[in-house]
Fold each of these.
Amino acid sequence: MAHAHAHGSAAAANRGRLVAVLFVSLAILIVEVIGGIAAASLALLADAGHMLTDVAGVGMALLAIWFARRPASNGRTYGYLRFEIIAAVTNAFLLFGVAALILFEAWRRLSEPPEVGSGLMLAVALVGLGANAASMFLLRNAQRESLNLRGAYLEVMGDFLGSGAVIIAAIVIAVTGWAIADALASALIALLILPRTFSLLREATDVLLEATPKGVEMDHVRQHILDAPGVEDCHDLHAWTITSGMNVVSAHVTLAEGADPAATLDALCACLSDDFDIEHSTFQLETVDRRRFEERAHR
């Protein structure tokens, strides 16, 4: 059996950006809680609640990166790399809980809308909008490489859109005195959270179920393996994801008569690395006789 691999986490490569986003999110959270209480604005408090999940989510992402850097052991041969995906799932459930809480409070306020300080509400929302824009800028490229970072990015994007909704509500209240606009903006913030959270949870669940990585066509992988010099056949082919940015392939490869195993293995590893960006592959090289033995054993 032969291996070709290179370990690394996409999230770990962007740890500094996550730290910066964490501090920005903490600052916005404090400002929005104080401003929401002072202005009696549910929309600001809703955005602060979502910001709290940002802080928790980014904190979990950083914790996951720290765990992922711990060395592998006999008990955990891949180390703690999968912890990043668990953090993404936990983050998704936090978001669902926050959305439900906001929707409930918004519904309650529709019948009894309190007096809202629109001026303070607008000022705090503008600060939040600018800070969230800065956080989105920090994560805009990194979120394409990691589910963990994508979760953080989606939360920041939700806050950015939420701040926009608060700004609109503050302007409506200031111009018309229609206090219900605050509750409606809160409900909109909650609804903006849900679709992206479903997407995050679905992708993270696929990783935990060891589904075929997104963008990897198994028929193409199989054909590339069969086209490698010295390959007679390929079976028991599997592809899955350990953590974001680390796809894995394993396969049993039947060698043609007279093939050079070392040359075939080099060709296989180069093929998967160059054409499919798969750096960790495990191939069990077999002779034709061995394949016949396996077929008899599985009958």
Note: The first strand starts at residue 2 and ends at 4.
Amino acid sequence: MPRLTLLLPARDRFRDASLPKAMGQRLARADTVACEAGAKAQLQRHLQAIPAHMPTAAITRHLDAPGAEQQAWLRADPAYVQIDINGGRLLACGEMGLTAQEAEAFVASLRTLFGDEGFPINALTPSRWYLMLPRESKFPAFDPPEDVLGDDLVPHLPQGDAGRRWRRLLNEAQILLHNHPLNENRIAQGKLPVNSLWFWGGGVLPDFVRVQARVFSDDVLVHGLLKIAQAPSASTPTRFDASLRDGDAVVDLRDLRDVAALARDWVIPAATSMRGKDEIALDFADGETFVLRRSQRWRFWRKPLRALAG
């Protein structure tokens, strides 16, 4: 019973709320399964990390530079914070168009600050910077940057005694980066300055990862999980291809926002090509999963869905 699973964002993330009729018919006749919501839970359904956690920093660091897997890792990615009357808003994080030389120059200015704390810092890629910590380190709750972008920083900073050290380090890092001479050059070139960091994704590498399907993704975290599992990795195809029917496959479409493209390039051609007991699962990040099968064509009395979410 080969299953093609499409990993999709939460249903309310699609710009076009109106479903194409053919896709609406398929989904109306499909079986639905309620799963745990959230990006990490969604990945864990298909790439099962043991223990069941997703320490992004340790996983992507293993992909960028294998070694020192017994340490704890924390992402300290370059960021731009816009100061306003209420404090500051995170407007960019990670991918800021830095060269490797620029990233190294910024990190060099931070090495004493973090080195004195016992947390060496390195920029393994221009967009992914890492702090190395002792394995037994305890981390406060750090929100991932996608949950913070565009928002006021204060509600997302770690609170209480556990967060005090990290709030202080962030403030001191912001002062050092704000005064860095490279930022004048970047502003003159119309680029965003790097005036902050964002801490997130802390933890130690999972012991192993179980994968039971071919996985196609452009996401760095996914590729890191596949490397731990010693499983092959491949980029996300641009549209459905019959080769995806050769056994179970998971296709990462979480960046997709156009429901018409989802129907045209994926759902309709995949559903049309179903054979025997083939299945197609539309796994949405909000926890709703639609499972399509050929036998459901007899449910013709069901009215087509007009939208992904009510």
Note: The longest helix spans residues 160-178.
Amino acid sequence: MTRYSEPPVESLNTGKGAVVGQNWRSLWSLDPKITFLNHGSFGACPLAVLERQWVLRSQMEQEPVRFFALELEPLLDAARQDLATFLKADAADLAFVPNATTGVNTVLRSLCISNPDRASLQPGDELLTTNHEYNACRNALDFTAQITGAKVVVAEVPFPIEAPDEAIAVVLNQVSPRTRLVLLDHVTSQTGLIFPLQSLIRQLTDRGIEVLVDGAHAPGMIDLNLKALGATYYTGNCHKWLCAPKGAAFLYVQADRHSHLRPLTISHGANSPRIDRSRFRLEFDWTGTADPTPYLCIPDAIQFMGSLLPGGWDALRQYNRATVLTARAGLCKALDVAPPCPDSMIGSMAVVPLPDGSAEHLQASLFQRHLEVPIIPWQGSVNRLIRVSAQIYNTPADYDVLTEAVLLLIKEEKGI
């Protein structure tokens, strides 16, 4: 793993952890003409990590047979161990997948298959989720229900929301004797909420219900402890807030559920005669020829992002959270709206309700002004939301420019 030096000491305010005088954006290849406030959608990989990926790709292409047959397995093991340490999990319980959507699909597809330890989903079984679930994963849930005869049940978590307990009550109220699995976001994509998973998972598992967490945004945004969290399955992206290359994600599976899971692609590991590695590892580590370098760069991304501030990852998470809360407060004040959720439910993304109108038109108008920020349609008391992200390369001036543009465009929509 490449080691990165700390930024110059003079670029840091050692009093309160604030960043001054450092051009953090120069560490990324982001278009300088764009005010980029949408790290949450696809992340952005630092130049130094991309350089490490180039080295690994060169190693792969210099002698592909040697790389895949001899070098890849120990490289994957080392990367998985570093990721496990970061997530506070056992490496044996982690499998690499290209994205969290694949992780969700892997678990759901496995529910359709009977095995000696567990029966498959049956007609009338219930799959519980919320109205905040990411569309791609909701589609996977609906597909699973269609082919098994199971039923998707949706808990309508309110938004705006006043307290985490509201989400807990609504979800638990939808649990029934037929509930087989609950799919929950850790950080909701549309509304930027951190769901109160610790309490929800404990109460659901006490009732014998499996919990699958879609943690697409959580790694790098939240200080994760997967062992303590207790989810049956947890999948998360490493290309978002960890800033690894695109195509890097993981699936965590509790040890007693390994035999329940098969990868989406069945390959050589299904009948491998090897006994030095688990069947879980053999199947998930090789699903066919692909570029594994995003996985191998995860340790470099962890180390690089953790080296930017003297306080490491804790300081980075705190800095990004403080930045986005300040940005949200500024937007709320300018738009004369109340914050739609308590600060305790915010990480590095936040949304603010907007006056009714076309989400698509407003987003296009903002991009014409070189502002990259999502305007999200919503079904509730308001019909569109603006979602801002905060990564260390963002500055207060970015959000000032955004606020000014939003106010101007809303006035234009109203014909003022």
Note: The chain has two domains: 9-47+309-413, 52-301.
Amino acid sequence: MADVIAAVATGKSPCAIGILRLSGDGAAEVCGKIFKLQSGTPLTEAPNRKLVLGELLDEQGRVIDQALAVYTRGPHSYTGEDTVELQCHGSPAVLAAGLTALFHAGARQAGPGEFTKRAFLNGRMDLTQAEAVVDLIDAETADAAANAAGQVGGALLRKIGPVYDKLTDLMSHFHAVLDYPDEDIDPFTLSGYENTVRMAVRDLAALLDTYGRGRVLKHGAKAVILGRPNVGKSSLLNALAGYDRVIVTDIPGTTRDTVEETVRVGRHLLRLLDTAGIRETADRIEQMGVQRAEQAASEADLAIFVCDGSVPLTEEDQRAMDAALECPRSLALLNKTDLGIVVQPSDLWFEYVIPVSAKTGDGLEMLETALDMIFPEGEPCDGSILTNARQAGAVLRAVKSLESAELAMKRGQTPDAVLCDVEAAMEALGEVTGRTVREDIVSRIFERFCVGK
């Protein structure tokens, strides 16, 4: 018997609609104590999955709102249990009073992610679907939302499930022959499963290859802005952010540390890092800023080199350009076109060179076009792109175990040695879907969720 949990499932700010959510055995009985149907019918007798109108009462029995309720009987609900959702006007005071009344009626406060955790524990979704719920809530672009929605629908499970099932067939065949030698079972031979292991490695490696794109899709591309002092790096970040995020002055060395801001440029999410101007300096603090700028370039997904196009290039420009070209992806912005251009695009060693004015915004629209070329769309964002670091780590362990099993087969090692690696791969894949994941990991996963989900 699951106790009844309750929480506010909407935000804390005033809004048009606010939702109180309950789940557990007796959810309708508990909610019925503080929600009275207009028809006079008890909430426990309300039709399944249909909105009913009634009055919401506070702890003292006073009417505090007219509300709608929907009662969904388990196991065919989000959590697999009886659930009730109350749709009130979105007053924080009303929601708080209603939640207090629910606690007084017998419910308890839901923990972070407890509704979705119950859905996982009750078999309504696997762990990939559960984790995708919070990714969908946190999605900052349409592509990220589409991929998360696909995973909520089971896209990753459909990728991993068949591999797990084939490995299960391999293991069960071996143990059937071992445990029942007198039965009429086809002999077990490793050669008969070489293709199974090889195809499993191929399929999982292909899934793992999507993680690079998935990480950028989910978190945004880490884009470092490089250049010597006073070329307009901070002005560029402010222009893309849409507000004065960074102090801009004509004094060299104003920016001494990395400053991060997340911006959207078309379909692209960029985590922009404004850095100290790259130059020789006797100032120890500024020296540290320059070192951090060059270090950030080596770790970034994209380097944006900025130069002052109104004056000739300098040695400091060259040093910043060299640092930018160390990044796997890079482009150049020929800034200050409003002052006239001395530097030509051909003077810069980049495939993409965009003349812009960070001050006026001219030319910045071309940045989206360049980003489309640097980060092409690739396969559709249908949920088959791996975006979760925990899942990627588990798939990587599965691939390594199966590669070890494949090598053991080629060396002619005994079945038990080979199957030890196969079993390790299955354990790793089980961590992705939740079949074999430890309780402490499950708890840590759902701590990422908001209370009402």
Note: The mean pLDDT is 87.
